Amino acid sequence: MAKDIDAKFQTIGANSQRISRLPILSASGACIAFLHRGVYNEMLATSLRDQTQPFNIATDKMEKLLSLPYPLRQGITYGQFVRS
After folding, report:
1. pLDDT 10s digits, 49-60
2. Which of 16, 36, 38, 84 is most exposed, with the fewest beta carbons within 10 Å of its own?
3. Which neighbouring-strand residues pair with 36?
4. In 12-68, which residue ranges form alpha helices assigned H by DSSP?
5. Closest of 4, 8, 2 to residue 22, by C-alpha
């Protein structure tokens, strides 16, 4: 759930700062990408602008955010951007 991702970004790291990157793991446990806190916040802001499919952070899964179009590069989604 997205609320779990949000909670992870609130975690204080070893340097006494909130963590800024989370690994994205495949089903086998291999790290396939990193999600940066800034990109996550940008995805949330994009979802707020798109009123046709409102996003509920408490109940929706990350797939919904990752499938949104990435605004800074035409023709790709946030998921494709994060994995590139």
Report:
1. 877 777 888 888
2. 16
3. 21
4. 37-49, 62-66
5. 8
